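User: Before I run my own analysis I want an independent prediction to cross-check against. Here's the chain; please return only the structure tokens and, at the end, one sentence I can use as a sanity check.
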Amino acid sequence: MLDETPDPCTEQRERAQPNAAELEEFQRVWTELINAALHARSRGGHGHRGAEEITLTQSLLMEAVRGMDHPSVGAVAHIVGVSSPSATRMIQQLERKGMVARRRSERDERSTVVTITAEGERVLAERRKYMEQKQKQVFDAIRPSLRPFVLDVLRDLRAAIDDN
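Assistant: Structure tokens:
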């Protein structure tokens, strides 16, 4: 009887050199996945107050502010991956909506510190709850026998994206 245990070295070589058809299929499926996520996002906010009041980038910016200690506009821009002028515009929009507040830094008067307001916390919590419901729907749509494999693939994708 032949040993059907995959050889890790062979597996790594095969993984390192995908054939053209595999690469083309990966690129097609990747694009379809991204397009599906964008399409779902565009449908996402309809029908509930709060989370529809902010864009995805604004919510990422607010989540970054929540996760930092006395964040400056520049630091938040860096974390979110936008320019400082773009972050400033988003923060001004969010400030007008009452979701964030800005003030001069006590540590460095040249710097502006951003904080989340109670309204901002409410909107983020609502958005998080909505996203968790959507994630559960997607998770429930995956066959239970495939869920561990899907989780491994998602972890591998995350690591590959982080490495590049």
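Sanity check: Residues 20-44 form the longest helix (25 residues).
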